[in-house]
C-alpha cells in the first residue's frame, strides 16, 4: 500500500492521532510546552475548535456566538459540582446536553438567515446571553464574581457516599483527581473521541452534503433538497462540542464567569480555526496549538529578556530592536496575534494547512524537472 | 412627566452617537459593499484623537513652585500656560472641542490609507473574508492604542464652563430641579448637525450625486466614464471622519479606553441592520429609535415589569427585525435579502 492510500484509511489516521495526542507530554517537552496547564488548554480548545470547524469549515456559516455554548457548558458543569457530585462524568454529560439545547434554540432562529445576517444574529444572541449573565441571571451565574464552589454546597450524591472532608473538594473521576496530568489525559481522551467523530462526519454523506451547502446552497435548494435540518444538525453538533469544552474548563478549574461568553471570546475560536486552516481536519488543532503555545511564550517575555535575546547586536541597534519588539510581547501579545491573523487572511486564506500544501507542491515542482531530465537522458542512451 | 423628558433626552443623546457610527458604517457598506468590522476601531481612534490633543496641549516642563518657600518644590506646568498664562489655561480646558481640528485630517488620512492599503483588495472576496480581515485589523488597531496609551480609561473632561448641568426645567417652564448635562445637549446638537451635513453633502453637491448614483448602480456610472472607485475611496475617508468625530466628541461622556471600539461595533451593526443595510436614512432613524428604546427600557417602571429588558432590548429588536423583515426598516428591496 502506498503512503497516500494509508492516510486515507480512517483507522490509520486515528491510530496516529491517538499516539500523537497521548505522547504530547513527551514530544512537546523539548520546546518547553509539556506542562499540564498548557496541555489541558491544548486539548480543551482543540475540542472547541474541532466543533466550530464542523459548522464553519463544512457549511461556511460564520458564527460569532459560539462562546455562549462554552459559557453555558461551564455554568452547567459547576452547578453539577455544586448540587450533585464532584465526579466529572455527570458534569460533562449535562454540559453537553445543555450546550446542545441552547444550540437548538439559537441555531433554529439564526439559521433562517445566511451570510452576514447569520453572523449578526449569532452576535446578537451572544451579547444577549452575556448581558443577561451579568445582570438578571445573577442568581444562577453569580454575576461579575463568577460561579464558584463553596463549602455549603449540598452535593447530594457525594453526601450519600463520602463524609465531607476539610476545605473545598476537588473534581475527580471516581476518586481520581482531575488536576495535573490526569486532568490532561481525561481531556485528551475526549479530544480523541471528538476528533474521531469529526473525522467520520467529514467523510460521511452528511459531511458531503454540508460541503455542498457551502459551495452552492441555491443549487441544493433548486434540486428540492431541504438544507435546514442538515445545517441545524451541524450547528447543534458544534454547540455540543463547545459545551463539552466549557465543561472541561470547569473540570480543570471549577469556576465559571460570564466573560467566557463575550463575543470576542467567540472571535478567538474563529482566529484559531482560520489560522490553522478552516475546513481541514487537523488545521483547527494546529491553530489552537500555535496560538496557545505562542501566547504562553510571548506573554512571559519582557524587555529584560528581550535585551538578553538581542545582546549580540550593537548597543544602539539593540535598543531600537527592543523598543520596537517590546510592543509585541507581554501584554502586547494580542498585537502579534492580530498581525499574524491579518497576514494569514490576506495571503493564505487556507491557513497554515494551505501553507504546507503550497510548500509540498513547490517541492514536487522542483523535483519533477530533474526526473524528466533523467528520463530524457536515459532515452537518449 | 419630568422623568419621561429626561429619558427622551437620554435616548436622543445615545441615539445621536449610534446614528453617527451607523451612518459611517452604512456609507461604507452602501458604496463599497464591504462589511467593515474595524468600524468600531475607527470610533475608538476618534476618541483617542481627543486624548492626543489633550496630551499635546499639556506638554509640560518642570517649573519651580513659587508658592512653597521653605524648600525647593517643582511642579509640572504646561508650556501653553507658561507662554500665555490664563489664555493658555483656557485652551487646555477646551481641548476636546479643539480636538476636532486634529480629528478631521487625521481620520481622513487613516480612512484613506485603510481603504487604499487593505480594504480595496477585498472587494471581490466573500463577506466572511471581509469580516475576518477587518476583525484582524480591529484587533491590531486596538492593541496598538493599548501599547501606546495603556489599558486604563483616560479622562478627557469637557470645558469647565459647560461641565455642569443645564437647567432645562427653567428653560421649558417646568420644574426648576430638572437639569441635564450641558455636554450631552451639545453632543445631541452636534450629531444632528453632522448628520445633516453628510446628507446635505450627498444631496446638494455633484460629488454627492455621483456617489448616490454609484450606490444605486455602480456599473452604469462606471460606463458613463466616471471614476467611481476614486469617489468611493473618498467616501470611505468621509465615513472615517464622521465616525471619528462621533468618537472624539463622545470622549467627555465616556473616558476613552482601548476596547471601547469593540463594544460599539456590535451596537453599530445592530443599528445598521435594523435600519436596513445600505440605507443612510434607515441608519439614522434606527440609531435614534434604538437609543430611545434603550433609555425607556432602563426606566425603573419598565424594569419592574420585565427585569433585565434594558440589557437586551436592542438585540431583541435586531433579532426580530432580521427574522421578520431582513431588509430592515428602510432598506431597498432586494439588498441583502435572500
Automatic annotation (TrEMBL), chain B:
The chain crosses the membrane at residues 15-35, 91-110, 131-149, 185-211, 232-253, 265-293, 305-324. One of its GO terms (molecular function) is transmembrane transporter activity. Pfam families: BPD_transp_2 (PF02653). One of its GO terms (cellular component) is plasma membrane. It is a multi-pass membrane protein. It is found in: Cell inner membrane. GO terms for biological process: amino acid transport. It comes from the Bacteria. Keywords: Amino-acid transport, Cell membrane, Membrane, Transmembrane, Transmembrane helix, Transport. Belongs to the binding-protein-dependent transport system permease family. LivHM subfamily. This is Branched-chain amino acid ABC transporter permease. It comes from Sedimenticola thiotaurini.
Amino acid at each position: 500500500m502506498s503512503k497516500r492510500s494509508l492516510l486515507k484509511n480512517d483507522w490509520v489516521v486515528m491510530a496516529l492521532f491517538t499516539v500523537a495526542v497521548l505522547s504530547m507530554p513527551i514530544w512537546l517537552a523539548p520546546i518547553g510546552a509539556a506542562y499540564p496547564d498548557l496541555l489541558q488548554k491544548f486539548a480543551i480548545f482543540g475540542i472547541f475548535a474541532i466543533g466550530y470547524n464542523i459548522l464553519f469549515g463544512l457549511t461556511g456559516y460564520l458564527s460569532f456566538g459560539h462562546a455562549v455554548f462554552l459559557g453555558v457548558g461551564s455554568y452547567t458543569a459547576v452547578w453539577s459540582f455544586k448540587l450533585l457530585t464532584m465526579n466529572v462524568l455527570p458534569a460533562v454529560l449535562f454540559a453537553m446536553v445543555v450546550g446542545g439545547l441552547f444550540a437548538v434554540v439559537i441555531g433554529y432562529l439564526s439559521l433562517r438567515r445566511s451570510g452576514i445576517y447569520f453572523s449578526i444574529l449569532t452576535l446578537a444572541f451572544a451579547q444577549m446571553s452575556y448581558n443577561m449573565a451579568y445582570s438578571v441571571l445573577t442568581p444562577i451565574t453569580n454575576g461579575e464574581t463568577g460561579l464558584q464552589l463553596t463549602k455549603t454546597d449540598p452535593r447530594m450524591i457525594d453526601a450519600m457516599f463520602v463524609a465531607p472532608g476539610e476545605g473545598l473538594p476537588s473534581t475527580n473521576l471516581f476518586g481520581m483527581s482531575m488536576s495535573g496530568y490526569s486532568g490532561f489525559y481525561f481531556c485528551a481522551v475526549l479530544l480523541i473521541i471528538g476528533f474521531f467523530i469529526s473525522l467520520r462526519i467529514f467523510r460521511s454523506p452528511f459531511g458531503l452534503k454540508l460541503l455542498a451547502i457551502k459551495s452552492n446552497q441555491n443549487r441544493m435548494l433548486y434540486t428540492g433538497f431541504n438544507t435546514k435540518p442538515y445545517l441545524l444538525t451541524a450547528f447543534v453538533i458544534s454547540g455540543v462540542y463547545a459545551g463539552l469544552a466549557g465543561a472541561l474548563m470547569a473540570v480543570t478549574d471549577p469556576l465559571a464567569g460570564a466573560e467566557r461568553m463575550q463575543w470576542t471570546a467567540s472571535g478567538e475560536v474563529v482566529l484559531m480555526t482560520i489560522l490553522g486552516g478552516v475546513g481541514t481536519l487537523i488545521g483547527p488543532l494546529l491553530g489552537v496549538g500555535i496560538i496557545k503555545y505562542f501566547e504562553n511564550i510571548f506573554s512571559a517575555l519582557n524587555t529584560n529578556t528581550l535585551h538578553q535575546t538581542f545582546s549580540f547586536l550593537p548597543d544602539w541597534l539593540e535598543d531600537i530592536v527592543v523598543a520596537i519588539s517590546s510592543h509585541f510581547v507581554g501584554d502586547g501579545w494580542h498585537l502579534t496575534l492580530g498581525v499574524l491573523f491579518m497576514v494569514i487572511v490576506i495571503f493564505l486564506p487556507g491557513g497554515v494547512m494551505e501553507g504546507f500544501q503550497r510548500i509540498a507542491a513547490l517541492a514536487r515542482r522542483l523535483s519533477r524537472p530533474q526526473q524528466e531530465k533523467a528520463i530524457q537522458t536515459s532515452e537518449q542512451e | 412627566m419630568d422623568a419621561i423628558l429626561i429619558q427622551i433626552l437620554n435616548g436622543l443623546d445615545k441615539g445621536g452617537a449610534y446614528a453617527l457610527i451607523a451612518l459611517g458604517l452604512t456609507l461604507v457598506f452602501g458604496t463599497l459593499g464591504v462589511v467593515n468590522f474595524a468600524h468600531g476601531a475607527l470610533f475608538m481612534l476618534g476618541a483617542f484623537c481627543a486624548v492626543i490633543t489633550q496630551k499635546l496641549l499639556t506638554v509640560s516642563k518642570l517649573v519651580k513652585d513659587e508658592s512653597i518657600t521653605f524648600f525647593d518644590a517643582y511642579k509640572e506646568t504646561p508650556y501653553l500656560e507658561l507662554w500665555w498664562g490664563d489664555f493658555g489655561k483656557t485652551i487646555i480646558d477646551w481641548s476636546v472641542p479643539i480636538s476636532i481640528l486634529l480629528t478631521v485630517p487625521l481620520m481622513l488620512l487613516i480612512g484613506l490609507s485603510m481603504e487604499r492599503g487593505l480594504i480595496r483588495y477585498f472587494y471581490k472576496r466573500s463577506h466572511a473574508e471581509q469580516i475576518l480581515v477587518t476583525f484582524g485589523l480591529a484587533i491590531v488597531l486596538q492593541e496598538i492604542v493599548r501599547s501606546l496609551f495603556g489599558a486604563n480609561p483616560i479622562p478627557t473632561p469637557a470645558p469647565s464652563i459647560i461641565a455642569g448641568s443645564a437647567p432645562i426645567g427653567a428653560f421649558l417652564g417646568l420644574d426648576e430641579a430638572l437639569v441635564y448635562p450641558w455636554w450631552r445637549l451639545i453632543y445631541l446638537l452636534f450629531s444632528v448637525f453632522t448628520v445633516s451635513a453628510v446628507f446635505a453633502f450627498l444631496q446638494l453637491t455633484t460629488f454627492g450625486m455621483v456617489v448616490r448614483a454609484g450606490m444605486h448602480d455602480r456599473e452604469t456610472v462606471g460606463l458613463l466614464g466616471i471614476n467611481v472607485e476614486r469617489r468611493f475611496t473618498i467616501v470611505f475617508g468621509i465615513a472615517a471622519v464622521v465616525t471619528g468625530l462621533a468618537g472624539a466628541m463622545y470622549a467627555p461622556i465616556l473616558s476613552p479606553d482601548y476596547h471601547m471600539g469593540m463594544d460599539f461595533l456590535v451596537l453599530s451593526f445592530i443599528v445598521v441592520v435594523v435600519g436596513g443595510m445600505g440605507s443612510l436614512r434607515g441608519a439614522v432613524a434606527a440609531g435614534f429609535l434604538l437609543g430611545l428604546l434603550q433609555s425607556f427600557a432602563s426606566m425603573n417602571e419598565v424594569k419592574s415589569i420585565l427585569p433585565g429588558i434594558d440589557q437586551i432590548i436592542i438585540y431583541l429588536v435586531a433579532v426580530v427585525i432580521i427574522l421578520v423583515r431582513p431588509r430592515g426598516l428602510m432598506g431597498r428591496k432586494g439588498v441583502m435579502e435572500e
